[in-house]
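@channel sequence for tomorrow's demo:
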Amino acid sequence: MTNINILKTIALTAFADELILSELGTLAPSKYDDSTFDSLKAGAFLPRLQLMTSNSKLCKSGEFPINHYAFVQDQDHKDLGKNVDILVCAWRPKAMDLGGTVVSSYDETSETFKQIQNKSNQKNSNCMWGYEFLVWIPSVEKFGSYFCGSKTARREAPHVKARMHNRATLGSHEIKGDEYSWYGPTTSDCSTPFNMPGKEAFTAEVEKFENPSDEGPELAPEEGDGGRAQ
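structure tokens (generated this afternoon):
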């Protein structure tokens, strides 16, 4: 067999293989849908919505656009753009100690919460506290958490809460201090209609969100909520 005939045979075999591969989904469709896969992948932790600023490792490396919002699930960061529309569903207090084993507390009266809150005043404490919101993100059609855990984000939290059970648009703006500047989140009204979650899904997610385990380990975010601890 000549070299030309060998190449033709290889090409025809490759084409036949591609044709078979393209038909496999039709011949043997999965009995499970993507929502089942995602529910197992997510486990007990909600994906999070995060403003990625220049402090982010991914932004520093050029892997993610600066001052864009990310939908973070496990180690996957999906770029949602500079502005993102949300439905504000619920809120709860939250404190996180990111040093070593990550510990979270949702009871603002507990000793753990108070200790984390006090420790957060120390430089490089790896502690955060504030307000965590359950949000529906129509661009990915999923629920996520949005944690306002830095001083900058806590100042913005009342504007998020003011839009409870309503649409909102998150953005960012530059904040100038005496020695340096940084970016923090903004919240504004959203007049753009979008797909809402189903009633059963909404009720179930709010129930889980408002009744978390008291304290315990949690997956650590890459960083805080995307802003300096100001």
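heads up for whoever presents: The chain is about 30% helix and 30% strand.
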